[in-house]
Design a protein that fits this description.
With 333 residues, the protein is an alpha+beta fold. A hairpin with a 5-residue loop joins strand 12 and strand 13. It folds into 3 domains: 90 residues, OB fold (Dihydrolipoamide Acetyltransferase, E2P) (Beta Barrel), CATH 2.40.50.140; 77 residues, Nucleic acid-binding proteins (OB fold (Dihydrolipoamide Acetyltransferase, E2P), Beta Barrel); 79 residues, Beta Barrel (OB fold (Dihydrolipoamide Acetyltransferase, E2P)).
Length: 333
């Protein structure tokens, strides 16, 4: 072969070239897993897709490079015997995690891009190479979110606050709801036990229903507390009054009852009726007692007068007897 007549290109490679040196080359072959770059005639190095960017979201090298691109890279490994070389491009840029605490301190606010969902949260990229997770419970203070897709979409920007830094695993814990004050501090003063509020039934399930309340908060109602005064059960989209029967700030939970609203009104009505009836009875009793007292007092007055009259008559009778006796003694027969 003709090529055997000339020295192998690797044998002509600069003997002083070493790991860590910067080289410039042209992309000659592309594959999903990386790009082959020719840094000297006949000498190629592989830039693996994971070494192209600090970002963890590059799925294919074609997203980053194409044949013919001239790139600058750093030598990561060099094996002259095996004639293999691996290169890296991201090493030319500072590792964003080196000074992560300075750029993204806990409590700082940033704009991130939604990259992926899981059942428990949203994965976002704050910048190339800096990823974070917003737990589903940190998306909203008030909404009950079953899946993150109900709240945002992949590719959208979302405002975040840094809650925690995990430098070892290169992950930030982020929050979205923390951009606002905790409204449950205010809700605690509004949705007090036994207070009544207008709400709309938004969902009914096996154990009860979800009710939309004022200020964007939701409450839970068990099935037995959905019963209306006419015996029917509340339906979706129905607007009714609900009484707060349980409030938990820590659990962010408001338990409601529509049944209690009309039951308590009925009880109050019954109590008022009994109270009114009792007052009426008391008034009648007082009137009767007063009448009896007047009658009794009148009777006593009459009896006293009669007694005085009888006593007077007795005195007169006694006087007459005494006078007669005295006359008889003076004139014996």
């Amino acid at each position: 072969g003709l090529k055997q007549l000339t020295p192998h290109p690797w044998d002509s490679l600069d003997p002083n070239l070493k790991v860590g040196d910067k080289v410039t080359g042209k992309v000659v072959v592309m594959a999903d897993y990386g790009a082959f770059v020719e840094i000297a005639p006949g000498v190629e190095g592989l830039i693996h897709v994971s070494e192209m960017s600090w970002s963890q979201h590059l799925r294919s090298a074609q997203e980053f490079l194409k044949v013919g691109d001239v790139v600058e890279a750093v030598i990561l490994t060099l094996d002259r015997e095996e004639r293999k070389m691996s290169l890296g491009m991201k090493q030319l840029k500072p590792d964003p995690w080196e000074k992560i605490e300075e750029k993204y301190p806990v409590g700082s606010k940033h704009t991130a891009k939604v990259r992926n969902f899981t059942n428990f949260g949203v994965f976002v990229e704050v910048e190339e190479g800096v990823d974070g997770l917003i737990h589903i419970s940190d998306l909203s203070w008030t909404r009950k979110i079953k899946h993150p897709s109900e709240f945002t979409s992949i590719g959208e920007d979302i405002e975040v606050v840094v809650l925690e830094i995990d430098k070892e695993n290169r992950r930030l814990s982020l929050g979205h709801k923390q951009l606002e004050e905790n409204p449950w501090d205010v809700f605690e003063t509004i949705f007090t036990i036994d207070s009544v509020h207008e709400g709309t039934v938004v969902e009914i399930f096996e154990k009860g229903a979800t009710v939309a309340l004022p200020y964007g908060v939701e409450g839970f109602v068990t099935s037995k507390h959905l019963v209306k005064e006419d015996g029917t059960t509340a339906k979706v989209d129905e607007k009714l009054e609900f009484k707060v029967i349980e409030f938990s700030k820590s659990a962010k939970r408001i338990v409601l009852s529509h049944t209690r609203v009309w039951e308590d009104k009925k009880k109050e009505s019954d109590v008022s009726a009994k109270k009114a009836e009792g007052e009426s009875t008391r008034k009648a009793t007082r009137k009767l007692k007063s009448s009896l007292e007047k009658t009794t007092l009148g009777d006593i007055s009459e009896l006293a007068a009669l007694k005085s009259e009888m006593e007077e008559q007795e005195k007169k009778k006694a006087a007459r007897k005494s006078s007669k006796k005295q006359a008889d003694e003076e004139n014996p027969s």
